[in-house]
Write a structure and sequence with these properties.
This protein is 78% helix and 5% strand. The chain has 400 residues and is mainly α. The chain is elongated.
Length: 400
Amino acid sequence: MLFKYTALDKNGKKTQGEIDALNKTVAISALQRRDLIVVTIKGDEDRSILKASFFDRVPLKDVVIASRQLSTLFTANVSALKAFTLLASNAENKMLASQLQRIGDDLQAGSSISDALGKFPNTFSLFYVNMVKAGEESGKLNETFQYLADYLDRQYALTSKTRSALIYPAFVVVVFIAVMLLMFTMVIPNLSQLLVESGQEIPFYTRIVIGISNFIIDYGVFIAIALILGAVYVLWFRRNDSGKEYIDRMKLSIPVLGDLYKKVYLSRISDNLNTMLSSGISIIRSIEITSEVVNNYVYKGILNETKEDVKSGSSLSNALNKHKEIPQIMIQMVQVGEETGSLGSILKTLAEFYRREVDDAVDTMIGLIEPVMIVGLAVGVGILLTSILIPIYNIASSIS
């Protein structure tokens, strides 16, 4: 692989050139052996990583399986290089296979496992990389990968169940809107023409329905353009930090759904902190990494403030107590964990508690949404048809 570099020699003179090497780590080592100080180095490796980060993602399920396999191989005293090479040759996902092979190449060049994994942030998160780093330092990589597999499995199950709960109502709403549009653009115009030609007085509620139908037909194109522009604006708005924070805060304020989101994030925070503290990572670093992977700007800000307070000497419970988004039951249990020296097990209990809460909330929501949506759809269509069919019935009665 060809790399372009900029470096400084012994005299501080700037030099540029190209070097052919297996990967970036090998290229840097070769340049350093020439007594050069590398300033920048870029190659096909960087471009392929960039491409992968934008266009390719490895499903979380595949990462869970790979983590379990790595745990088994390390338990069997298989070397890291052989373990990653073996997984690369057997991985069904081509992107994951490619990444595992390149990780193996980096290991062969002398890189640590955590540094090699860190080159693929979309597959191996900051949390994942730091856990592996702690495992390398403690010499317990087999346990670390087992921890990671269990943790990712729990997060995958939690995320999947929450997503499934939201997909069904979204589908029903889309179907309802589609039915309404068909009614207003195809059915209502034909029926309204019959009413107008009859010469009879049209009821007020029927005139409203006909007016809505005419508006959609006359200005439907402009409505569609406005909706598309609105969607583009929302996508742009989500790209900046203020937009992400606004949307994340709005998600937490939605009735019913907001409570579900809060429980998901609290479960994620508790689970992350427990897993990292159990692996020997410091409380400050654990909070910092959790803030990066919690996936909500509101709770990310809370954790960043908590980290600074803990740095200043505050206890974790007192630091969390400053924020209304953290429930008192969580604060009190964390306080008990600090006083008894069992913070890890308390956080594990909290994570399991909020997972059960999420499961119960999702099951309840699914049970309620289905009948409510069906009744709502039926009532909407019924009102629409009634407002048109009653005048038609009156016309038929007058004729007979």
